[in-house]
Amino acid sequence: MRLKNRRPQLHPSCASALGDGRALILVCSLLAFSCGAKTGLEIDDFDAPPVFDAGVDAPTDSGPCSIERIPIQPARGDVVWVLDRSGSMRLGFDGSENLPRPFWRWTILRQAMASLLPLLGERMRSGAKIYPNPPPPDAVEITAEVACQTSPQLDVPIALNSASTILRAIDAHDPFGGTPTVEAILVAREALRNSREGRRFIVVATDGGPNCNPRLRVDPRRCVCTNVPEACQHPTEGIYSCLDDPRTLEVLRETHETWGIPVFIIGIPDESRPDLIDFLDRMAVAGGRPRNVPGQRRFFSASNEGELREVLREVIEAIGRCAFTLERAVEEDVAVEVHLNDQVLVEDPVNGWMWSESSRQEIELTGPACERANRQGSRLEAWIQRCRD
Fold first, then answer.
1. What are 281-330's pLDDT values in tens digits?
2. What is the pLDDT of residues 159-173, one digit of tens each?
3. What are phi and psi of 135, to 5 degrees?
4. Does the domain made of 77-320 have the CATH classification 3.40.50.410?
5. What is the DSSP string of 43-102?
6. Would you call 310 helix, strand, or coil by DSSP?
7. Does 132 sit behind a cis peptide bond, omega within 30 degrees of 0 on the bond before it?
């Protein structure tokens, strides 16, 4: 998320009216969270909705300044997890082959999701699209077309408390086939079209460049091959292994800009293919939610199990656990200060709060501030103050 640095200048009498020489914009509401443990994990639980104090206060006159109270609520929304189950997800993080199942990328992704998905609690409804389809049980020969097939519906419908259902879907089949990422994103986008929630997200977890597009207008012998070079030399099936680059970026931009659905890209990089790593960066930017950490990749890069858990937690906090919404948007020409348990939080992307990219109605708490806000009995407050000239 981008930090908006603009700070409007308020009337001097507003500052003096507050007594401490600072102009405040505040909105007060009481958040009471319940905490619990699921499956033995010590995590914050949102199964019980927050309890708020008595409603919105009318503006209070303080000379030329007035203070308006607006409640801040935990943000809610819908997310579809688009999970790459292609054959390369059988590899280890370092590209090693023929490893026992516990060391597969697919297995480790499943373990990370098992421990972190419950953090979304009652805030976010989740669904899943897993691609490609498993091989047909009666298939005599597996062609490239078969290896790239993807069903036109979600594997797990969007619902609350769907973590266990998503994990069962992950466990149902082993990695196989190509990487038809675009088709999976289109299925997720269509499922989110009629979402009741205003906040909608897609999270893609993949370990390779998207392919499986037989309609690419390119000579497969000269395309960017996502497989071993010989795969793209096949006279009829080589095109399926070519990087599906123009269409992927177009669909991601359209999903974000036209449909209003940001797409996060979590990627397991193949260090032997820097060209495909660079393309994951381009996908993250086109999807509208790149990672903004100086010196690091724009996609949420995970080169080992620890990094995968870290970036997955970061995405979950951004879409749900650390996101809060105001009852209505705040105008651009007013300044905002947020209090947590009577302590002023600074507008800081590391430890404090910041506006979301979408509007001045949603904020994200960052770093330790998010952890403190999710503790039982925490109070998140803000005041919005306007001063007449």
1. 999 999 999 998 889 999 999 999 999 999 999 999 888 888 888 888 88
2. 999 999 999 999 999
3. -65, 140
4. yes
5. EE--SSPP---S-PPPPEEETTEEEE---EEE--EEEEEEEE--GGGGS-TT---S--GG
6. helix
7. yes
Q: What angle do CA 347, 349, 200 make, to 5 degrees?
A: 105
* CB distance 311 to 303 below 8 Å: no
CB 326 within 8 A of CB 72: yes
Pairing relation of β-strands 300-301 and 263-267? parallel
Euclidean distance between CA atoms 203 and 263, whole angstroms:
6
CA pair distance 264, 27, nearest whole angstrom: 30
Structure tokens at 147: 């290896």
What's the whole-model pTM score? 0.79
Portions of the chain given CATH number 3.40.50.410 = 77-320
Give pLDDT tens digits for 335-378.
788 888 888 889 988 889 988 766 788 888 988 898 888 887 88
